């Protein structure tokens, strides 16, 4: 799953590097988040990304759990490479940990504690955990 997320992020980085017209939605099927010192960072809706339902749910879950959330004008590839954790959100896959960016590991190359916590919370919210608190969608918590 993490390898798939890494491939999706690479594809997304290529899309983000394209010039876009002001005010036009950014084509994407996933939203990216970076965790820096326990706080979430993600591009804000003002930059033209689509308001993903899963993105909104994860932001709400994080805030409810006391995790500070920052919506930025831009999240540069260098910021992703330097982050403590990186994950994507998508309607079809929920919260997907990213373990490497541009072939380099994110932190120790494993999903971090904030990502795992939000995966569990999202799975509980959507019922993907089968109602028993286990991680869903065929994932294993690490």
CATH topology: D-amino Acid Aminotransferase, Chain A, domain 2
Mean pLDDT: 80
Query: What is the approximate shape?
Result: globular
Q: How many strands appear in the DSSP assignment?
A: 7
Report on the biggest sheet: 5 strands, mixed
What is the number of domains?
1
CATH class category label: Alpha Beta
CATH superfamily: D-amino Acid Aminotransferase, subunit A, domain 2
Task: Outline the structure in words.
This protein is α+β, with helices and mostly antiparallel strands. The protein has one domain: D-amino Acid Aminotransferase, Chain A, domain 2 (Alpha-Beta Barrel). The chain contains 4 helices and 7 strands, in the order αββαβαββββα. The strands form 2 sheets. Strands 3-2-1-4-5 form a 5-stranded mixed β-sheet, sandwiched between helices. The protein is globular. The two termini are 12 Å apart. The C terminus is likely disordered.
What labels would you give this structure?
142 residues; alpha+beta; D-amino Acid Aminotransferase, Chain A, domain 2; 5-stranded mixed sheet; two-stranded antiparallel sheet; globular; disordered C terminus
